Every structure is written in C-alpha cells, then in structure tokens.
C-alpha cells in the first residue's frame, strides 16, 4: 500500500501562528502588523505577564488573609493588573526601547526595529503604563489601610529596577548574573510581596524566602538568553551563554532552577510543612526530566519547548510553597 502524501501546512495557518507569536511577544514572529493598538500590545509582551499575575496569587495564598469574597477577588484582580499588564508592560516596553539595536540583529520583526512605531510613541507608552501602575498601587494601599504605602513603594522600586536593568549607564542586563537575578526577583519576589502585603503582613521571613526562591528565577531568566547569543556577543553584553559558552551556561541554568527549589522544600520541612515539601519535590522531578530531554541536549533549539514543558511545574511549585506558608503557624523567624 503506497504512502499518503503529507499535506503541507496552509499558508494562512502559518501566518496566523506567526502573528499570534508576534502579538504575545514570542520568538518566531513576523513583521507587518498595521494596527497601532496591536503594535503597542506587542511591545508589552503579554506572554510575560503570566508569571507576575501568578506571583500575586502566590502572595495572596501565603498571606493567610485572602478570602473568596467579591471585594477580595476584585482587589486581587486590580493587583494583577498593576503587576502584569501595566508594570510588566512598562518593563517590556522600556526594554525594547533600549534594546532596539540588539533586536535589529536578534528579532528584527519587533515593533521598533521594524519601524512599525515611532520612538516618540514608545516613550509615551512607557510613561502611561508607569503612572497607571503606580496610581493603582496607591489605590491598593488605601484599600488595605496601610500606614506606610508599601505597595506603592514596591511599584516604584520595581519600576526603578526595571529601568536600570535596561537603561544605560548601569544596564544590569549587561551582566549575566546581576541582570538575570534582577529579572528573576522581579518575576517571583516582587509580585509575591505585593499580594502578601495586600491581604496580610509582609515580613522579613517572606522577603528572604522569596529572594532565595528568586535564584531559581535567575535560572529561568537565563533560558531567555540563548535566543539572543548572536546579538549579545556582537554588542558586548555578558550574558551567561556568551561568558561561559552554551553548554556550561545550560548547566548553570538548570542547577539554579533545581537547587533553589529544593532549598525551598527544605524550608518547608523546617517550618513543619512536610506534605507540602514532598509535593514540591515531586514537582521538581518532571522539570529535571524535561531538562534532560530537551534543554541540556540543545538549548538553542529547544528553549521554547523546554519552557512550555517544564515551567508549569515550577509555577505550581511556587503555589505549593505559598500555600504551605499560609498554613504555617510560623509567621517570622527573625
């Protein structure tokens, strides 16, 4: 019996997939979008909002004070709006603004290097997102009756870190360690602190635990550097793949991800949350499996596939850790 011919992908399907990737801010997109609102959304990279929104969920869970009431749901949604679309959108837009020369090499389809939007329009978007995010943070502080506007302070502090991450002269992303840790902490610790402060008390225990957990986030941030090796090397950015080579950097990446999640599991044992610690360890095992299957074998080709496969287990592990802290009777160790 003869083989049936393989039907090639329809051009419209390929184009729609590329357009969806462009809109979400993913690799493998295409230029040519005409709608100014879609272009603005592309700058904000919606795919990157998800970890920040999840971080707010984890902070609310760890606070022990969140209840399934209408006002709590509404306020949590406002905090997610602040952390995700507004302040992460600000971060991504300002990063594209200062990375336009690198993107011209690595991702020429991005809105700025492709000429789809002017620099003046980008600058206006940066300010609108920043001011809107800070305004919502102030409203959240008022709702929570904070004597000190801690959420506003977190919003301003996180926005400042975002600025020095992307902008000269500091441009933290020029250093693979500092830049990726700043990114990891912004994705894990900052939204967690906001959610925790909104519904409970933010204490030094939570600050230290989440900053340690953010070292796993550093490993996740390194995954994104593999797609930019060519441009980073050309412009002198010392990302870990550029500094250590592809294979060594891939091992640094996976070890950071695994070891600091295991450290979080150890902390859960220390506070008597053994069941949650066991669940967290079980969630680390498939991550290690996917690291071996995809990432360590070819990080340049499999970075997106690895993230799609393994990251759901990492974010579930964050929630497990948060729930354990919320159920723990220990509120501080300092």
Tag the structure with descriptive keywords.
single chain, 334 residues, mainly alpha, 14 helices, 75% helix, 0% strand, disordered N terminus, disordered C terminus
SSE layout and pairings?
Blueprint: H1 11-24, H2 36-44, H3 49-63, H4 70-98, H5 100-106, H6 119-144, H7 150-166, H8 176-199, H9 204-225, H10 229-234, H11 240-244, H12 246-270, H13 274-295, H14 299-327
Helix pairs in contact: 3-4, 3-8, 3-14, 4-6, 4-7, 4-8, 6-7, 7-8, 8-9, 9-12, 12-13, 12-14, 13-14
Describe this entry's structure for a reader.
- The protein has 334 residues and is mainly α.
- It is built from 14 helices and no strands.
- Helix 9 (204-225) packs antiparallel against helix 12 (246-270) and helix 12 packs antiparallel against helix 13.
- The longest helix is centred in the first third of the chain and has 29 residues, at 70-98.
- It is globular and about 50 Å long.
- 46% of the residues are buried.
- Residues 1-7 and 330-334 have low confidence and may be disordered.
| Main β sheet profile | none
Question: What string gives the helices and strands in order?
Answer: HHHHHHHHHHHHHH
Distance between the termini: 74 Å
Number of helices: 14
Indicate the overall shape.
globular
Number of strands: 0
Share of β-strand residues: under 5%
SS-based class: mainly alpha
Summarize the model shown:
75% of the residues lie in helices and 0% in strands. The chain is built from 14 helices and no strands.
């Amino acid at each position: 019996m003869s083989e049936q011919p393989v039907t090639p992908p329809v051009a419209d399907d390929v184009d729609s997939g590329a357009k969806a990737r462009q809109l979400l801010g993913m690799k493998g997109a295409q230029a040519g979008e005409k709608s100014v609102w879609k272009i603005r959304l592309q700058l904000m990279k919606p795919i990157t909002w998800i970890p920040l929104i999840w971080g707010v969920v984890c902070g609310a869970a760890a606070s022990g004070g969140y209840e399934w009431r209408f006002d709590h749901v509404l306020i949590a949604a406002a905090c997610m709006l602040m952390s995700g679309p507004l302040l992460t959108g600000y971060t991504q837009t300002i990063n594209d603004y200062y990375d336009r020369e690198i993107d011209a090499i690595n991702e020429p389809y991005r809105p700025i290097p492709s000429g789809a939007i002017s620099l003046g329009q980008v600058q206006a978007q940066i300010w609108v997102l920043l001011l809107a995010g800070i305004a919502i943070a102030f409203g959240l502080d008022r709702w929570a009756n904070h004597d000190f506007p801690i959420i506003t302070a977190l919003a301003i502090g996180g926005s400042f870190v975002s600025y020095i991450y992307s902008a000269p002269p500091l441009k933290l992303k020029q250093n693979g360690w500092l830049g990726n840790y700043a990114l990891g902490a912004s994705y894990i610790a900052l939204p967690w602190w906001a959610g925790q402060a909104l519904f409970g008390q933010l204490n030094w225990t939570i600050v230290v635990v989440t900053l340690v957990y953010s070292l796993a986030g550093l490993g996740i941030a390194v995954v994104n550097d593999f797609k930019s090796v060519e441009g980073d090397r050309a412009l002198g950015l010392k990302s870990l793949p550029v500094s250590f080579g592809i294979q060594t950097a891939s091992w640094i990446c996976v070890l950071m991800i695994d070891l600091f999640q295991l450290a979080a599991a150890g902390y859960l044992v220390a506070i008597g949350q053994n069941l949650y610690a066991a669940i967290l360890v079980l969630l680390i095992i498939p991550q290690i499996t996917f690291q071996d299957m995809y990432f360590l074998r070819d990080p340049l080709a499999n970075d997106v596939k690895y993230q799609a496969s393994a990251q759901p287990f990492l974010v579930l592990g964050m929630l497990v850790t948060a729930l354990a802290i919320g159920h723990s009777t220990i509120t501080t160790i300092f």
